[in-house]
Design brief:
The protein is an all-alpha fold and 206 residues long. It contains 12 helices and 2 strands, in the order ββαααααααααααα. Helix 4 packs across helix 5 and helix 7 runs parallel beside helix 10.
């Protein structure tokens, strides 16, 4: 301590005065802004991770690797989280166009999950709605197995409504899926020239 101008000042190790420390307790607003900042940072990290996964799944070799890492159950769980469903559906759609991805998704009740999202109208945009139908369309390449799961999930009534009232892209995909569920899959694919993978993925990333 040193007497300067009649007052005692605490000196630091370098001889410079040590600034006074505030004894003010942290207010609720301090905690709020700190928490808000952390949540915002977490959301950005989550967004970047999902976007990176989407770009990875554009390559077939990466799709197979992700399936082998048992990513499908985690992605299906994330598809129910607010704010991430659109991009997660794009990842699932990419995975569904490879055989390993379709099998893994059919094994983890993806059909019931996707139909449930459409039925409850939980999707936040037209493009997300379309991507959900497109993912079902990609899964329908499993034919007989998909057909049974779709019937169990009561997909016909949901897709029939989309065929009537959905966007043009959603109506087109819903019509093709309904044809497969009702038993016209082989004829429908012959007319379409096979599975339209480019059409499945034409929504792009949001």
């Amino acid at each position: 301590m040193k007497n300067i101008g009649g007052g005692w000042v605490v000196m630091g190790s370098t001889g410079a005065p040590t600034p006074p420390q505030s004894n003010r307790p942290k207010s609720s607003s301090d905690h709020f802004y700190s928490s808000s900042s952390k949540e915002s940072e977490s959301e950005r990290t989550h967004h970047d991770a999902v976007l990176a996964l989407y770009h990875l799944t554009l390559m077939e070799s990466n799709r197979v690797k992700l399936v082998k890492l048992n990513s499908v159950p985690t992605l299906l769980a994330l598809s129910k989280a607010l704010g991430s469903v659109g991009r997660v559906l794009l990842i699932l759609c990419n995975l569904a166009i490879c055989g390993e991805g379709r099998s893994a998704m059919l094994d983890t009740n993806a059909v019931e999950c996707l139909v449930g999202m459409l039925r409850q109208d939980e999707l936040d945009s037209e493009s997300t709605h379309e991507n959900c139908v497109a993912t079902l369309y990609a899964l329908s390449h499993g034919l007989m197995r998909f057909r049974g799961l779709a019937r169990e999930a009561k997909a016909v009534e949901v897709l029939s409504e989309i065929e009537k009232r959905g966007s043009e892209r959603a109506r087109e995909k819903a019509k093709r899926v309904l044809m497969i569920i009702r038993g016209g899959g082989a004829r429908g694919r012959a007319e379409d020239g096979g599975m339209d993978w480019e059409g499945v993925l034409d929504g792009g990333v949001e």
